[in-house]
Write a structure and sequence with these properties.
Elements lengths: L2 E7 L14 H6 L2 E7 L12 E4 L9 H9 L4 E2 L2 H7 L4 H7 L8 E3 L12 E5 L9 E3 L4 H12 L4 E5 L3 H5 L1 E7 L2 E8 L18 E4 L5 H16 L8 E8 L5 E7 L14 H12 L2
Parallel strand pairs: 1-2, 1-3, 3-4
Antiparallel strand pairs: 5-8, 6-7, 6-8, 9-10, 9-12, 10-11, 12-13
Length: about 290
């Protein structure tokens, strides 16, 4: 009898964006039957699944508390609920900075607090968000930024302020993907600020391409992953998947922009043919 893996989407994208299809044959070869389900569908049954894998739950920013409550009801969830809770609020970036990980400088501004605006171009975005929705870049004039901040605060959201990394305009970001704590592949992402939304309305459209990390990039990504696991009190092998997004700072050195541990796009369409096999092996490892 095949073991069951449930891939979880949302009402707007019940079967994801198509990227995960590449993993189905590899999972089948290892004895897994895969089906999709929507996380908040009252008719969906997650109790019989050997593993429930978050893949396209991209509507959570507006319903995070409800989403986290649901995560807590799924004992076979990957990644686990405690990881999702830690990772779905970008305040973890401050924790990484405090741990000494090279990270894009991050300031949190809670509702009711005043911002101290940087003197160089900067980005303001919600601390709970996905796909760059709600993120905006501003220059020296902080009037627009103050208005954006007020809108976030009026919606009850904590804001994140970060200096804009100009390298994104020419180099974009590089995303490094790990399965079971082991490096698998990487891909580049073009700048998304000002881009059009995907038809689902859940995230901004991206341009992706395969990539090989330059010298020093993987070391920063691995340091970040080690620090994140230490902060959460888990082993890297306990993470079915992880994605570390890196940008170049103004001095050219790599900086962590985000660590994606909840429901990241894994870039199978921009990876080598072995990536789905590595993912399937990591799924099996989670059950060992």
């Amino acid at each position: 009898m095949k073991r069951e893996a449930v891939f979880v989407g949302c009402a707007e994208m019940p079967e994801g964006d198509g990227d995960d299809v590449a993993a189905f044959a590899a999972l089948d070869d290892l004895g897994f039957a895969v089906r999709w389900a929507v996380w908040d569908d009252p008719a969906a049954d997650f109790s019989t699944a050997d593993l429930v894998v978050l893949r396209a739950t991209w509507d959570y920013p507006d319903r995070r508390a409800e989403f986290l409550d649901w995560c807590e009801t799924v004992p076979t969830l990957a990644n686990p609920a405690a990881v999702v809770r830690w990772n779905t609020d970008k305040s973890y970036l401050v924790e990484l900075l405090d741990a000494g990980v090279p990270t894009v400088p991050t300031t949190l501004v809670e509702p009711g607090e005043q911002a101290k605006w940087p003197k160089t171009p900067f980005v303001v975005k919600p601390s709970v968000g996905a796909g760059s929705v709600g993120a905006a870049r501003f220059g020296a004039d902080a009037a627009g930024a103050a208005e954006h901040l007020r809108a976030l605060h009026a919606d009850g959201r904590t804001a994140v302020i970060q200096p804009y990394q100009s390298s994104v305009d020419t180099q974009g970001e590089i995303a490094l993907v790990y399965f079971g704590g082991v490096y698998s592949h990487a891909f580049t992402k073009s700048a998304m600020l000002g881009a059009d939304k995907d038809p689902s309305g859940l995230f901004l459209a991206e341009k992706l391409a395969p990539a090989v990390p330059a010298s020093g990039v993987r070391a920063v990504a691995e340091d970040a992953l080690d620090a994140a696991c230490s902060l959460m009190g888990i082993l890297r092998a306990e993470l079915l998947y992880a994605r570390v997004d890196i940008v170049r700072g103004e001095d050219g050195h790599p900086l962590v922009l985000e660590i994606e541990l909840a429901e990241p796009s894994l870039g199978f369409r921009n990876a080598d043919a072995g990536a789905p096999l590595r993912f399937a092996s990591a799924v099996r490892q989670q059950l060992a």
